[in-house]
Amino acid sequence: MAGSRVFQESVRDLLHRPGEMRERSRVLDAPEKLGEGLAWVPEGEAIELELRLESVHEGVLVSAEVRTTVHAECGRCLRDFTTPFRVEFQELFAYTPSEADEYGVHGDHVDLEPPLRDAVVLALPFQPVCRPDCPGLDPESGELREAEAVVAPGADLDPRWAALAGFEAGPSDRAGEVEAEDEPGSGGNPGSASK
Ligand SMILES: [Zn+2]
């Protein structure tokens, strides 16, 4: 064994003692990037684990609550953002694994990394959005369709922008939610050319 693998949890005091139970908290660092899509847990990101380990006849039943921070690229506006992430998994580590895909007790410990990795990767969002009402990109211009981006255009831009700016100037419902420093109700005002 190479050094101290943090994902290995000792179950020495649970072996062959059905009914025994332990609860433990752990904070681990992601050993590598988890996830291949638009959302991932980067290498080194802190992963909090709330573990419940129960001794059963067949082995040790591990129930885990996982909390970490997911980094993602918004599927609508393509901006990077981070969001809290939580997932649970439960896995039996058998003394004598009967199937190839069954986890086993190794000596006096169990290796939490495979089930933890699977649980996290499978629960990552396929199409993350930075916020539920993200307006995304304008299909014509590729620019952000947000209040702070829409307020900016000068007089020489595509007339579609002017129409959009006029729309923004109307109801102030959406503008109120955006943490923009621009005055929200003055769409098309050339004085606020900086976004
Ligand atoms: Zn977005």
Tell me the count of domains: 2
Report the span from N to C terminus.
Answer: 55 Å
Low-confidence stretches: 1-5, 149-157, 166-195
Strand portion, in percent? 25-35%
Q: What bound compounds does this protein have?
A: zinc ion
Q: Report helical residue fraction.
A: 10-25%
Number of helices: 3
The overall pLDDT average reads 80
The helix/strand series, from N terminus to C terminus, equals EEEEEEEEHHH
User: Can you tell me the overall shape?
Assistant: elongated
Question: What is the number of beta strands?
Answer: 8
The largest sheet, given as strand count, sense and whether it forms a barrel, is: 6 strands, mixed
| Radius of gyration using CA atoms only | 25 Å
Question: Which helices and strands occur, and which strands form pairs?
Answer:
Elements: E1 8-10, E2 21-29, E3 39-40, E4 46-55, E5 59-73, E6 80-94, E7 103-104, E8 109-111, H1 113-123, H2 147-150, H3 159-169
Parallel strand pairs: 6-7
Antiparallel strand pairs: 1-8, 2-4, 3-5, 4-5, 5-6
The chain binds zinc ion.
Provide structural commentary.
There is one protein chain. By secondary structure, this protein is an alpha+beta fold. It folds into two domains: 116 residues, no CATH class; 46 residues, no CATH class. The strands form two sheets. Strands 2, 3, 4, 5, 6 and 7 form a six-stranded mixed beta sheet that branches. Strands 1-8 form a two-stranded antiparallel sheet. A hairpin with a 3-residue loop joins strand 4 and strand 5. The longest helix is centred in the middle third of the chain and has 11 residues. Bound molecules: zinc ion. The site of zinc ion (ZN) has 7 residues, from loops.
